[in-house]
Every structure is written in structure tokens, then in C-alpha cells.
Amino acid sequence: MGNVQIRLSMFPINLNQLRFTPNGRAVLTGVDLELGGEGISVILGPNGSGKSVLIRMLAGLEMPDAGSIHWQGSNAPEGQIAIVFQHPMLLRSTVTANVALGLRPLGLSRCETVKRVNEVLGRVGLTHRAKDSARFLSGGERQRLALARAWAVRPRLLLLDEPTAALDPTATEAVEQIVREIRTDGAKIVMSTHNLGQALRISDDIIFIEAGRVREHTPSARFFSRPHSNEARLFMQGELPWRISFGD
Amino acid sequence: MLNTILDAFALLAHLDSGVLAIVLLSLKVSLSAVLLGALLGLPLGAWVAVADFRGKAVFTVLLSGMMGMPTVVLGVIVYLLLSRSGPLGELGLLFTPSAMILAQTLLVAPLIAALTKQVVEDVWRDYATELRAFRYTPWQSMLTLLYDCRYSLIVAVLAGLGRAISEVGAVMIIGGNINGFTRVMSTAIALETAKGDLPLSIALGLVLISMVLGLNALAYGLRQWAMYKFG
């Protein structure tokens, strides 16, 4: 779908000693990470570990208090970045208008906008709902719309912040299939989740984050067979040392 | 009392030319003012909601304060601006419908802006992150939010129309209540009541109330339709 020459120009992404402490609360405590330009990287970790903040920092929505992000050595990324949240924002308008929303800042011609919108709606299976109000879509359809909106900008990097957390298994499967297609289309995917099954199904590599620090960044197969860190092992076994005690 | 009310209905039933002229001038002045006020107030309110700038809090307080600006005070200010010795005196607008439109525009624009800010700000809280992620400029965000809130903002515009069409102080001072030239419903009601011509006052009052109720019914219907169509 996109121009490959432009779309290869932001990787690797290097995160160096990222710290984020809003109101004195340590959320990221020194994240070091290198992200290549291919595949699906899944950020795993318990609630409050810093997954969403990391995603938002990559999207430029949060600024670190210390540390830096380099995009192929540059301070600013070249190429499109798109993000999809757990609860996507939907205008009081048609599905078509909601997909076109992401394209407005690109200054495309009307013809190109219509072409891209129709193309992505077809690919996420929402063509038949194009003229319907987006607010009447089901949860799964809403998330497919959000993915279509992100896909339409032809992102080189697609960030997904727990996109299936509120979906049933069927809708989750549909979203995962679309995410795989976007990857095949040439986008690097970075997705946060705390769903181990989903991480196993979809990921090429796992970034395990705990207490604001990357504990492990390994290929998916290795992570699920032989996790390197003790925290990851305990997380997968559900024996979390940081879990809430109920006074037992 | 009953006779007075019957006389008022008779005036309306015969479509008295004097009443009609006053009603039409009222509509012309107030609708023009609301149109101009909306053109100023809608983007201004949305901008204040979306943009971060120094003095935003002070500006917001001023804007809200302007909502309650006494119309006679505004009338005096505009009078001073347009009077022969005032800075805009050479335009010769005083005691003309144009001057009344100017005064009412200044009256309704802050009201529409303040209400717009409130509506847009609530939506902005939900939309800000994603619009920023899509690299929307404040201007693009503002236009998107105005579009998204379009049905809610009808209420803001109607509030402006209600304020414009029913105010007496400013148009009395600026227009002079000249019969057949600058006399509008609100000033005519005040004058005719003072003169004791109650049937005309009541007839104009009925027209005024009908218009306000009709517009509100229209707005309500439009919002219900929008809810049904867009959720």
C-alpha cells in the first residue's frame, strides 16, 4: 500500500534510559530498548507496569522526564505513526467520515482520501456499514474501524494500546487477523496487552515490562518456552510477587 | 382584560401592517446579529477550549462575565463608539438597524462563545489524545470538534437568538425606537405598554413567545433526530 522508501526510514528505534515520573510517581524507571522495523512486538506486563505510557511515548503523546528516543539516529521519526486505543474516539458521523478523520492532516486530495477509505473499509470488512453512524457499531466493529483509520494513513509504525481488552473472543480474533495483515503490508506493530494467549498467537517478539523497566526482550518462542527473567516466569504462572495481598 | 386579549388576537388575525413591519425588522436585526455572533462566537469558543495560551484562565473568566453583560451598559458603550464625537461616528450608523445589529452581535457573540467553549471542552477531553496522535493542529481540532458538536451547539446559537430578540436596553439606546425604522418587538412592547396600548403589546408579546417556543421546538426536534441518526 505505501511508499517503501519513505516507510523504512525510522528504524531502529532506540529508547535510552527513559524515565517518566509524573507527580513524583515512578512509572518508567529507566527503559532501554531497541525496536527493529519488522514484525509484531508485544509489550507484556502487569497492570501499572508502564506498558501504556511506553506506547504513548512512542506516539509522542508523552514526553520522558529523562532519557531519549532515537529514530534511526534522529530525534524525530520520519514516516507515519498511528495509534489505536482500547476505546477509540468516534465522531458523531458515518463510518466513512471516521476513517477519513485520520487522513485530514495529510492534506490528501479528495479522490485519494475516498480511495484509501474505501480500500481499508474493504480490508477490515466494514464496507457494508460505511454509511452507518459509527456510534451504532458493536465493540468489535468499532475496533475494526479504529484499525482501518490507522491503516489508512499507511503507518510505518502502528501502536496498539490493549486494543482487544474489551472484546469477546470472536471480535478479538478478527482484530488479530487485521493486525497481521497490517504487518504483512509493511508496518511495524508494537502492541501492549496482558493477555498471554493473545501474545502467544500474534507476537514475533515479547517485551516484558515490570515496575517501569524492561526485564526481557526476546523472540516470542523463546519467551514462552524459557523466559529469561524470574519476573516473567512468575507472571506467566500467575504467581506475581507484586500482586495485591488480600490479607491471607 | 378579556377584551384586550381579544383585540390582540384581532391584530394578529388581520396581519396588521404595523405589527408585521415590527416583527420583520426584529427578525432581520436579531437573525443578522445571531449569524454574525455565531460566526465569531463558535470558532472563538472552540479555540479557547482547544488551545493552550497564556492568560487562558483570565480570558475564560472575561468571556463568562460577558455573558451577563447588562444590555443597557453595552448599549451605552456602543452609543459612545457610534455617536458623532465617537471613534466610529463618521460611519453615521447611530439610530439605524445596522447599529442595532452591531450592538446585538456584541451581546450574543460572548454568550455563544462561552457556551461553545463549555460544550467543546467536554468533548475535547475525550478526543484530545487521538487527535494529537493524528497530528491535528489546534485549528483542525477546533473544526473537527465544531462539526462533532454541531447539534449541541444549536442550543448555544438559540440562546444567542433568545437574548438578542428579547433584549430592550441596547436596541433602545442604539436604535432610538424610531417608528417604522428602528422599532423592534421588544422596544415596541415597552413603549406601547407605557402608552397604554396593551392590545399591540400583547400581540407582539404573543409573536415573540411563539417564535422563541417554535425555535426551541425546532432545536429539540433536530437534536432528537441527530441522536437517532448518529447516536
What can you tell me about this protein's structure?
The complex is a heterodimer of chains A (248) and B (231). Chain A is of the alpha/beta class. Chain A has a domain at 6-87 and 155-237: Rossmann fold (3-Layer(aba) Sandwich). Chain A has helices spanning 4-7, 51-58, 95-100, 110-123, 139-152, 169-184, 196-202, 220-225, 230-237, and strands spanning 13-20, 28-35, 40-44, 66-71, 81-84, 157-161, 188-193, 205-210, 213-219. In chain A, the strands form two sheets. In chain A, strands 5-6-7-3-8-9 form a six-stranded mixed β-sheet, sandwiched between helices. A three-stranded antiparallel β-sheet of chain A has the order 2-1-4, covered by helices on one side. In chain A, a hairpin with a 7-residue loop joins strand 1 (13-20) and strand 2. The longest helix of chain A is centred in the last third of the chain and has 16 residues, at 169-184. Chain A is globular and about 50 Å long. By secondary structure, chain B is mostly helical. Chain B has one domain: Orthogonal Bundle (MetI-like fold). Chain B has ten helices and no strands. In chain B, helix 1 (2-13) crosses helix 10, helix 2 packs parallel to helix 5 and helix 2 (17-50) crosses helix 6. The longest helix of chain B is centred in the middle third of the chain and has 37 residues, at 97-133. Chain B is globular, with a radius of gyration of 20 Å. The model of chain B has no long low-confidence stretch (mean pLDDT 93). The interface between A and B is medium-sized, with 22 and 20 residues.
* Shape field of chain B: globular
Task: Give the CATH architecture of the domain at 6-87 and 155-237 in chain A.
Answer: 3-Layer(aba) Sandwich
Q: Could you give me the name of the CATH homologous superfamily of chain B? A: MetI-like
Stated plainly, the CATH topology of the domain at 6-87 and 155-237 in chain A is called Rossmann fold
Largest sheet of chain A: 6 strands, mixed
Number of strands of chain A: 9
Q: Terminal Cα separation of chain B, in Å? A: 49 Å
Biggest sheet layout of chain B: none
What sequence of helices (H) and strands (E) makes up the elements of chain B?
Answer: HHHHHHHHHH
Proportion of β residues of chain B? under 5%
Helix content of chain B: over 70%
Q: What percentage of amino acids of chain A are in beta strands?
A: 15-25%
CATH class of chain B: Mainly Alpha
Number of strands of chain B: 0
